[in-house]
Amino acid sequence: xxxxxxxxxxxxxxxxxxxxxxxxxxxxxxxxxxxxxxxxxxxxxxxxxxxxxxxxxxxxxxxxxxxxxxxxxxxxxxxxxxxxxxxxxxxxxxxxxxxxxxxxxxxxxxxxxxxxxxxxxxxxxxxxxxxxxxxxxxxxxxxxxxxxxxxxxxxxxxxxxxxxxxxxxxxxxxxxxxxxxxxxxxxxxxxxxxxxxxxxxxxxxxxxxxxxxxxxxxxxxxxxxxxxxxxxxxxxxxxxxxxxxxxxxxxxxxxxxxxxxxxxxxxxxxxxxxxxxxxxxxxxxxxxxxxxxxxxxxxxxxxxxxxxxxxxxxxxxxxxxxxxxxxxxxxxxxxxxxxxxxxxxxxxxxxxxxxxxxxxxxxxxxxxxxxxxxxxxxxxxxxxxxxxxxxxxxxxxxxxxxxxxxxxxxxxxxxxxxxxxxxxxxxxxxxxxxxxxxxxxxxxxxxxxxxxxxxxxxxxxxxxxxxxxxxxxxxxxxxxxxxxxxxxxxxxxxxxxxxxxxxxxxxxxxxxxxxxxxxxxxxxxxxxxxxxxxxxxxxxxx
Length: 542
Description:
globular; 542 residues; mainly alpha; 23 helices; two-stranded antiparallel ribbon
């Protein structure tokens, strides 16, 4: 048997639960793969989430699209990224960790460069920008393959910490993007090669203050800037990462592995495009489905397409990994992961909207006593100044959640944070109710922001605890696909939360969205207790 598993990119002997093996050779390789995986995942999150900032700046630069049309860009990116996670959860077993992380990181260059080119042409039709948003979903999908991969390298006792580091530091891509994109738009990073600046039509801003109308802005750098990190990272993934043959025994030649990855990712676009056409309003789509019908249909369609389109050895691998759906713990952990990651990514997308709409206007009754929400609030807090804090806190505490869970058990930690999120979510709803009926809503902002930080911190810690539980409940063959599957379903929070909160704000009842979240968290708290903490639980405190 090979006793030097680091002698090549393909490792045949991998026994992380063997203490001598782990200390002698395994630890070094595992952590090398982890430290390369983290920045690659960070860039994936950044490219996936960049449309939230780009659309605001397109509006500030006077691009000829309505707010509703610009909303389709963030919706398309969110849904595409979530759907891409479904095939991504199967890639490691079929194509190998090194092959998958290298190619999916390099793939991000296409939407990054394409977006940079498109943003230099405001006259181009909306479908060009929609295509770039759809393509950026690759960055969202990468989370599932990245987590599946890192899970296979570490012993069970360290999986919570390792997965917490990978996801937590990787999730800094959200905060990084919110800080970096407004900054790089202010400078000509690439000289003559980067295109000309455009003058802001409306005031813009970033975390340190306002950027006045008329300021030259290089919006194309929102895409081009990621090339500076993606090229060296892709090279590092290829030369520094490994394929574990114990997990991926039949990857084939790298070109064959690349073909499998490209094929499965391409399949994911089919249900996404179909569902978006049925969901989005005219002129983009038909507007026939509501959100609660469209998302389940999208998930089912993605699974059916994968099952039917797989062939040869790929068909057998897909069939094996579909076995996770017959395990009840797949479904319980999916719900619990929606509580944690679904809340994190959903609130990340929704917080700027909530700050702008609730605190950016004075809420004053007219002569008939009907509240009006159109008069601008001169004391409004800036969304770009504060919105990044929540995602930053949530990402920063993720490794802490994994570390604590390795010590005391994942389900105990999940139970505590679920209880905290029930209370904090209900409290946010109450504060929103008070602010949305006030002529001086800014007086409620410190409490609002503080409660949101509590929600982000709890969701971040809970991410670490659910990772640990998955590694404990499932064997090595199923843990990776389960992590990928649960993260795919939870990623739809990137679309659900902003739409739900936006609908309730429009209806004049923003508190109902958060009361609804509180009820969902309470149900999952009971679910977690029933499966993993009660006296007769089949699996105790994983």
